[in-house]
Design goal:
Layout (H helix, E strand, L loop, with lengths): L1 E5 L7 H10 L6 E7 L18 E3 L5 E3 L3 H12 L6 E7 L7 H4 L1 H11 L4 E6 L7 H17 L9 E6 L8 E5 L4 E2 L6 E4 L5 E4 L6 E3 L5 H6 L2 E6 L10 H17 L4
Parallel strand pairs: 1-2, 1-5, 2-4, 5-6, 6-7, 8-13
Antiparallel strand pairs: 3-4, 7-13, 9-12, 10-11
Length: 262
């Protein structure tokens, strides 16, 4: 099995080093890293289209790119690697990617890029920042990948999973829970500062606290010490509202046909 690893914290981040070191010990597995040169948190699925991308190799064999997480996976799969990996793995992220976080997450974005190319993909994150109990998180990620391989879940059919791992010793983690995404409150207020030139500078505020964190959500599961796994999809269509908007469109079309010119 060939595994491509990326992340959004950068190729030198402890999370990706720990994940690589854990996965490379799996029998019969080849692991390769293509990750951003610098931290690219909250870059989501962004691709770099108006400037060139450069690939360099670090002393530990990792390749790094002056681009986004999605850039890394995209160029890896469209020519850099020269082969098609069986699995794309992203992380381990420094902090949770739960609820609304998944929309902005570069960690999820890297995994999603693999999924868009038809390859099974997993995004791994630790719930709390600071890399506490990182080796335990890497061991749990290794266990999940190993079991998916044994159960023959890694194959031709693509899927996308978002995994959040509590910062605790491996033996203290409670069993995996399949969860839906929770929701956060609106983000905190923007931070305004004055630059040395007297201009207003704006910094995006922090993520809001959990709003929908009831039983069955990723927030609830990880709070209780479980590893949360949420299957994700890319289709943003609001299927439940299609009929409503079809009727609305009919009214708009009919009204436009009879309305006087403005």
């Amino acid at each position: 099995m060939k595994i491509l690893i990326s992340n959004d914290d950068g190729f030198q981040a402890p999370g990706i080093v720990a994940l690589h070191d854990a996965l490379k010990t799996l029998a019969g597995v080849e692991v390769e890293v293509v990750a951003p040169e610098h931290n690219n948190s909250a870059k989501s699925n962004a691709l770099t289209l108006h400037s060139p991308l450069y690939v360099h190799r670090a002393s530990n064999g990792f390749r790094y790119v002056n681009g986004t997480p999605a850039d890394c996976v995209h160029i890896a799969l469209t020519g850099l690697l020269g082969y098609r990996p069986d699995l794309v793995v992203s992380g381990i992220n420094n902090g949770a990617n739960m609820g609304d976080d998944t929309i902005y997450s570069g960690t999820v974005g890297a995994a999603m890029e693999g999924y868009l190319f038809g390859i099974p993909a997993i995004a791994f994150s630790q719930v709390d920042k600071g890399w506490g109990e990182l080796e335990a998180a890497a061991a749990k990620a290794r266990e999940i990948v190993a079991q998916m391989y044994v159960q023959r879940l890694i194959g031709e059919t693509p899927w996308l999973l978002n995994v959040n791992i509590p910062n605790m010793p491996l033996q203290s983690m409670r069993p995996i829970r399949m969860c839906r995404l929770g929701r956060r409150h609106a983000a905190e207020r923007v931070i305004v500062q004055e630059s040395p030139r007297g201009e207003a500078m704006y910094w995006i505020g922090g993520a809001g606290p959990a709003k929908d964190d009831g039983e069955g959500t990723d927030f609830h599961a990880t709070t209780m010490g479980h590893v949360s796994i949420t299957p994700l999809k890319v289709d943003l269509t609001d299927h439940e509202s299609l009929a409503h908007w079809a009727q609305a469109a009919s009214l708009i079309i009919a009204g436009a046909a009879t309305a006087p010119a403005m």
